[in-house]
Amino acid sequence: MLTRFRTTVLLSALILMTLVSAACGGDVPESAPFDPQSSALGVIAISSPAFGDGESIPVEFSCDGAGTSPPLRWSDPPTGTKALAIIVDDPDAPGRIFRHWSIFNIPSGTRSLREGMGDSAQQENSMQQGLNDFGEIGYAGPCPPGGQEHEYVFFIYALSEQLELPVDADAAAMTAAIRGRVLATGSFSGTYARQ
Predict the structure, then answer these.
(1) Each residue of 65-108: pLDDT tens digit?
(2) Domain boundaries, position 29
(3) Residues sharing a CB contact under 8 Å with residue 65, sequence separation 6 or more, in sequence order
(4) What is the pTM of this model?
(5) CATH number, residue 132
């Protein structure tokens, strides 16, 4: 069921981004090597060595533990990728999708992130972290209400250019900034219930 939900969310997001790209036109300069209106999106395989797809997220990556970001790794993005972005969302949060992390302008040659990225907006190698929906910079671990298990979806996006966002960019700004710039995407998820 979780996999079906995640697939539906991912497909809906991809369709929405394609429609917005087509409607906006001109978002990508003619000289760019990628045309989102006529090109198919590629797929990037993303995972964590700390837990498998659909498995429980270890407590150290949650609000019951240290709350550090988990290590991540992914496959090669397509040619023309200038930067990568990763978003972690809780689609089971009451009322709306809740953003737990956004990290962007990851260099295109990067294939992994270490555990514990910290809470500063500016990271090494041009990487930046945005505001999560707790109103803090960086990763915020799973913290569902007691007695509930939530799914946490890790999305990766290969982008045709780096994002120019302010230090305090929130979830909406990050989502808007990637529209029309996505070359490939991928996702996996973990679950968490309070200890």
Answers:
(1) 999 999 999 999 999 999 999 999 999 998 899 999 999 999 99
(2) 2-193
(3) 58, 59, 141
(4) 0.80
(5) 3.90.280.10
